[in-house]
């Protein structure tokens, strides 16, 4: 409550900047019996009990002294913070409690003032403990990094602390060892268990040239890995830092709670003042002054101030275990409202690894076989940076030798022309090179989701090549899980209509928008927002406008471009798309918990204030009910730390609702 009710000592922005510059480390969570936060409340509670017993035994002087001690111990946890906030012009719940305690003492109700201080200090200590527990659970991710890493130095392998790893170091990762930082495999072949980081249960095969992430567990092989990030600044530490910075930024409902609590504090002060002033006109002003103090406590928005922060911290930290990094509380809340998900095709629904899957040779091309068609195309595409060219080169290398091309000219958006073995040749799309008699074969390839390359030699078509970026194997199940959640699914892609339609059909997506420019994607997302919040999932530079314009932009962080990641509100660091529906369900559950917390906090105030004015409840009863409500709100918020993981047997996703679409 000191941070949320009374206001932080420093601005949240400064806190976020400090987090970005502070080296991350995992500190053990102090056992509750040794936690200094609980020391003063414990002293206050013991003194309260001793005072009560002494009073019963007739030792009134001893009881008073002990009760004053208990009051001082409990008040020390919130009075200094309340006074500091007041000096900065901020009114908080701590100030209301301070005024109530001082007023109770002035009326000779020292025991009730001590009880108020004790219960308020206990609730404050429990909140602080809950915050620490949630933050510790997040930082526990750092335990995935090994204490030491084996590094090659001057021809020898030496063990150094993982925090001292630097970019360019060569790590030797043995079987079963954790990888100390991000890197690229130089030698070796193995499989990596990334489930601790991304939540994915299936090991990922890796070999030379593949990227590996910090915290992954190596399988049975031995790998030599060149570090691409420092030990203190890798993908895992960045996840922790991003989430901790998100804690400093409050979501829409946190701001709603603040908007309610901020005017409520001065309103409570005015209401209590009016009750006390009205009491001066009666025969028993002392009675009404006491009721004014009770009203002051009853209307305090303690639970309101902590209703959201504990939930947000717990939920965002838990989402990281699904491989989902949420950059702010607002993004988390928006994630829980999503009604439509727009998916990019390449690199999101597909693996972004185009491969040659079909080759058709023209009947009149005597002496030419499939290998020759692929080799000719590869010779022309030798220096091209187009993804399809890379697929052709890879296929040709597996089939046999590839000749050299001269006079190569690339026609952007069309293809490549040049000379191979002194003979003019072209390779390009079927819109640039007419497939002629192979038109039916080209159309059949396109209908199966392939991109078609037509190969021509000396003006005659000799073959067509079908290249396809294969659908992620889990994509259809992920789409089905989204539909079970009542979320509409649409594909937005710049690819050919026939290719997109085929892939959409395989993935189970009915609403497919193809041949879109980046601006078209952004407009489609904007149009869909009129039917409910839209989440855009993409990985490329061309997805950045749509990611920025969506209610929630989700970047495929593991493979996405920097522009896509920076434009997004959420980064998906895993590879298994089935984690995203689980993250949506997790956000919905967290949002329900926040709503319940805010409703409970308001209900407590609505019920207690009239009962206090009527004299039904005294100061001790109101304090007890209020602080019990705070404890309940904290415990309820901590439930958001639980996350439902996908299992090999599948995960049931509840809350079925009618699905929506961008065109519904």
Strand content: 15-25%
Shape: elongated
Strand order of the largest sheet: 10-22-21-20-11-18-19
- Biggest sheet, in brief? 7 strands, mixed
**Computed CA radius of gyration, to the nearest angstrom:** 32 Å
Q: Identify low-pLDDT runs.
A: 1-22, 560-564, 647-661
The count of strands amounts to 22
Description of the structure:
This protein has 664 residues and is of the alpha+beta class. It has four domains: 12-139 and 241-317 and 588-641, no CATH class; 146-230, Distorted Sandwich (Calcium-transporting ATPase, cytoplasmic transduction domain A), CATH 2.70.150; 338-351 and 472-573, 3-Layer(aba) Sandwich (Rossmann fold), CATH 3.40.50.1000; 355-468, Calcium-transporting ATPase, cytoplasmic domain N (3-Layer(aba) Sandwich), CATH 3.40.1110. Helix content is 48%, strand content 16%. The protein is built from 24 helices and 22 strands. The protein has a seven-stranded mixed β-sheet with strand order 10-22-21-20-11-18-19, with helices on both faces. Strands 12-17-16-15-14-13 form a six-stranded antiparallel β-sheet. The protein has a four-stranded antiparallel β-sheet with strand order 3-9-4-7, with no helix packed on it. Helix 22 (562-567) links the parallel strand 21 (552-556) and strand 22 (570-572). Helix 5 runs antiparallel to helix 10 (285-298). It is elongated, with a radius of gyration of 32 Å. The model is unreliable at 1-22, 560-564 and 647-661 (pLDDT under 50).
Short description:
With 664 residues, the protein is of the alpha+beta class.
Detail the topology: elements first, then pairings.
Layout: H1 12-21, H2 39-56, H3 60-75, H4 79-87, H5 93-106, H6 110-139, E1 148-153, E2 156-161, E3 170-173, E4 183-187, E5 190-193, H7 195-198, E6 204-206, E7 211-212, E8 217-218, E9 223-227, H8 235-247, H9 252-279, H10 285-298, H11 302-306, H12 309-319, E10 324-326, H13 329-335, E11 340-344, H14 345-349, E12 355-361, H15 370-380, H16 387-399, E13 405-411, E14 415-420, E15 423-428, H17 439-447, E16 451-457, E17 460-468, H18 475-484, E18 488-492, H19 497-507, E19 511-513, H20 518-528, E20 534-538, H21 544-549, E21 552-556, H22 562-567, E22 570-572, H23 579-613, H24 619-638
Parallel strand pairs: 11-18, 11-20, 18-19, 20-21, 21-22
Antiparallel strand pairs: 1-2, 3-9, 4-7, 4-9, 5-6, 5-8, 10-22, 12-17, 13-14, 14-15, 15-16, 16-17
Helix pairs in contact: 1-8, 2-3, 2-6, 3-6, 4-5, 5-6, 5-10, 6-12, 6-24, 8-12, 9-10, 10-23, 10-24, 12-23, 12-24, 13-23, 15-16, 18-23, 23-24
């Amino acid at each position: 409550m000191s941070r949320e009710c009374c206001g932080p000592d420093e601005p949240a922005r400064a806190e976020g900047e400090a987090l970005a510059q502070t080296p991350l480390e995992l500190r053990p969570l102090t056992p509750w019996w040794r936690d200094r936060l609980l020391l003063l409340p414990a002293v206050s509670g013991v003194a309260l009990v001793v005072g009560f017993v002494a009073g019963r035994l007739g030792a009134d002087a001893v009881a008073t002294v002990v009760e004053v001690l208990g009051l001082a111990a409990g008040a020390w946890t919130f009075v200094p913070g309340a006074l500091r906030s007041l000096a900065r012009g901020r009114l908080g719940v701590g100030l209301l409690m301070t005024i109530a305690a001082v007023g109770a003492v002035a009326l000779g109700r020292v025991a009730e003032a001590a009880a108020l201080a004790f219960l308020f200090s206990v609730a404050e200590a429990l909140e602080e403990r809950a915050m620490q527990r949630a933050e510790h659970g997040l930082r526990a991710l750092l335990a995935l990094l090994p204490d030491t890493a084996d590094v090659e130095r001057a021809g020898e392998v030496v063990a150094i602390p993982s925090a001292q790893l630097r970019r360019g170091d060569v790590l030797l990762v043995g079987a079963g060892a954790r990888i100390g930082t991000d890197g690229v495999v130089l030698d070796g072949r193995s499989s990596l268990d990334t489930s601790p980081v991304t939540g994915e249960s299936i090991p990922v095969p890796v070999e030379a040239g593949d990227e590996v992430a910090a915290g992954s567990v190596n399988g049975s092989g031995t790998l030599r890995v060149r570090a691409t990030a420092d030990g203190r600044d890798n993908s895992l530490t960045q996840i922790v830092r991003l989430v901790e910075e998100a804690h400093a930024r409050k979501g829409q409902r946190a701001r709603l709670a603040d908007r309610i609590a901020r005017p409520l504090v001065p309103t409570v002060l005015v209401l209590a003042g009016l009750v006390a002033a009205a009491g001066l006109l009666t025969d028993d002003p002392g009675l009404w002054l006491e009721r004014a103090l009770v009203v002051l406590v009853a209307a305090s928005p303690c639970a309101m101030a902590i209703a959201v922060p504990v939930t947000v911290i717990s939920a965002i930290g838990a989402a990281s275990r699904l491989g989902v990094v949420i950059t702010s509380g607002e993004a988390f809340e928006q994630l829980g409202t999503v009604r439509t998900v727009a998916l990019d095709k390449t690199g999101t629904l597909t693996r972004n690894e185009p491969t040659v899957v079909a080759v058709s040779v023209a009947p009149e091309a005597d002496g030419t076989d499939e290998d020759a068609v692929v080799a000719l195309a590869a010779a022309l595409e030798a220096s091209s940076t187009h993804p399809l060219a890379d697929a052709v080169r890879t296929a040709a290398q597996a089939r046999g030798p590839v000749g050299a091309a001269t006079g190569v000219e690339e026609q952007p958006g069309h293809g490549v022309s040049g000379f191979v073995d002194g003979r003019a040749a072209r390779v390009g799309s079927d819109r640039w090179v007419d497939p002629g008699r192979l038109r039916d074969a080209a159309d059949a390839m396109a209908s199966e989701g392939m991109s078609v390359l037509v190969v021509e030699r000396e003006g005659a078509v000799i073959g067509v090549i079908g290249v396809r970026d294969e659908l992620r194997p889990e994509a259809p199940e992920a789409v089905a899980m989204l539909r079970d959640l009542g979320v509409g699914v649409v594909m937005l892609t710049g690819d050919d209509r026939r290719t997109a339609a085929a892939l959409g059909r395989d993935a189970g997506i009915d609403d497919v928008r193809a041949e879109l420019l980046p601006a078209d994607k952004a407009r489609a997302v904007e149009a869909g927002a009129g039917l409910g919040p839209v989440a855009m999932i993409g990985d490329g530079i061309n997805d950045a406008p749509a990611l920025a314009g969506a209610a929630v932009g989700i970047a495929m962080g593991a493979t996405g471009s920097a522009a896509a990641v920076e434009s997004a509100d959420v980064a998906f660091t895993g590879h298994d798309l089935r984690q995203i529906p689980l993250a949506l369900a997790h956000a919905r559950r967290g949002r329900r918990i926040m709503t319940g917390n805010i409703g409970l906090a308001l209900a407590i105030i609505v019920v207690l204030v009239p009962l206090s004015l009527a004299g039904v409840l005294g100061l001790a009863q109101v304090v007890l009910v209020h602080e019990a409500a705070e404890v309940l709100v904290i415990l309820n918020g901590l439930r958001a730390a639980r996350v439902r993981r996908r299992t090999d047997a599948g995960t049931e996703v509840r809350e079925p609702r009618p699905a929506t679409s961008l065109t519904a």
